[in-house]
Write a sequence for this structure.
């Protein structure tokens, strides 16, 4: 598995504060109406079968979470609409792609942030290259 | 013809091979997990810990291969697009006259409301009924009604998608007919947005446009374009015709129904040798 992580906004839910999500679902609906439709809800664990099986859908504990976060544009409506302050939207600083070098089986992704700084890993590589260049120059001279 | 048909088709398409509908297959090791998952026991259809967590399991959207392998390992079932006539053939082949009409999980769990669009076959009917008592408005319908509904869904513009309970050495038993559209359906989203091919396989057909007929048709208002969920039909405003991109086509056949001059037909995927790996 690649160590590269596609930058995307992430949404986190405080499930304890949220309670049983199926009674509210405001964030799911506001996200749907925004056109993003990233947030979904599912039951937390398998409901018991047989005698103790829940008789209504509302009796099953449901939780909300971000499923299709590649659609998220960070509008923040899910945070605003939540009556219990259970939603936290973590926005990422979108890096400006500089180059993608793809030579199977290696893939190098270079990027700088908007303010000109680099992600720590990229900076490490960059410094390494500078160092190597310096040494090569020193050897030459 | 896809790999599934070669391995499980016995000369025809895998879903038209009666061998795959044998009852003992559903309880056989390898299929039992997928069966339980879809029919309800042990796992409800969507649940934390299943495929819905692919956000965390796919850190790199661009690295489709790694994600695809992960999804392949996680899924105990997969879906394939079938056109209306094959969907009807499948329903006719299914042993038993009882069909279970249930809500679509994807649509419910993404806030699109409760929509009747999941059609379970035997032997999942009894099991799904017993294991999900909270689904109080599920309906048992007959084969005749089910086939009638297939035509209605097709008219509405929903893709027929047959799900099975897992591919194993002994077969590939179908269990439910889903009726999807690209905006609501989870597997379709996985395939279109992230390239997880195992989530939704393309059908055994592709559409073909007869340009001469197309020219005489609707001219500037191509209804087929709106029917295509996959962006396979492109409109050319200069020639006032549509062109079809076979590499994008899933072979659902929805576009045919709305063409006033019947310019679109479905042809076998093998018509285009280049599509052999594209399914």
């Amino acid at each position: 598995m690649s160590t590269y992580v596609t930058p995307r906004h992430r949404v986190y839910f405080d499930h304890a504060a949220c309670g049983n999500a199926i009674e509210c679902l405001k964030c799911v609906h506001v996200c749907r109406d925004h056109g993003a439709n990233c947030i979904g809800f599912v039951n937390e664990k398998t409901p018991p079968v047989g005698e103790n099986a829940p008789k209504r859908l509302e009796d099953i504990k449901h939780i909300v979470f971000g499923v299709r976060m590649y659609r998220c544009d960070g509008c923040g409506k899910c945070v605003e609409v939540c009556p219990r302050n259970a939603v936290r939207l973590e926005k990422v600083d979108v890096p400006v792609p500089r180059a993608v070098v793809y030579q199977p089986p290696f893939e190098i992704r270079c990027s700088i942030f908007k303010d000109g700084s680099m992600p720590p890993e990229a900076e490490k590589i960059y410094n390494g290259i500078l160092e190597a260049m310096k040494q090569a120059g020193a050897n030459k001279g | 013809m896809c790999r599934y048909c070669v391995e499980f088709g016995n000369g025809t398409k895998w879903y038209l091979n009666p061998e795959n509908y044998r009852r003992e297959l559903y309880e056989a090791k390898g299929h039992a997990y997928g069966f339980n998952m879809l029919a309800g026991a042990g796992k409800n259809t969507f649940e934390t810990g299943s495929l819905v967590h692919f956000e965390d399991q796919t850190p790199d959207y661009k690295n489709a291969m790694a994600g695809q392998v992960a999804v392949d390992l996680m899924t105990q079932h997969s879906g394939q697009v079938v056109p209306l006539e094959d969907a009807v053939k499948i329903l006719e082949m299914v042993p038993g006259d009882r069909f279970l009409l249930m809500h679509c999980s994807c649509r419910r769990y993404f806030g699109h409301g409760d929509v009747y669009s999941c059609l379970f076959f035997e032997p999942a009917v009894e099991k799904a009924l017993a294991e999900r008592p909270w689904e109080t408005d599920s309906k048992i319908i007959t084969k005749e009604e089910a086939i009638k509904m297939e035509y209605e869904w097709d008219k509405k513009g929903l893709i027929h998608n047959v799900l099975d309970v897992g591919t194993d050495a002994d077969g590939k038993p179908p269990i439910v007919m889903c009726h999807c559209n690209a905006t609501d359906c989870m597997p379709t989203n996985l395939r279109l947005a992230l390239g997880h091919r195992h989530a939704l396989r393309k059908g055994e057909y592709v559409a073909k446009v007869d340009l001469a007929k197309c020219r005489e048709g609707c001219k500037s208002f191509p209804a087929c374009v709106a029917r295509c969920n996959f962006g396979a039909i492109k409109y050319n405003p200069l020639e006032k015709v549509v062109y079809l991109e076979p590499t994008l086509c899933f072979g659902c056949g929805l576009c045919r129904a709305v063409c006033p001059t019947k310019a679109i037909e479905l042809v076998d995927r093998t018509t285009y040798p280049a599509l052999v790996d594209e399914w």
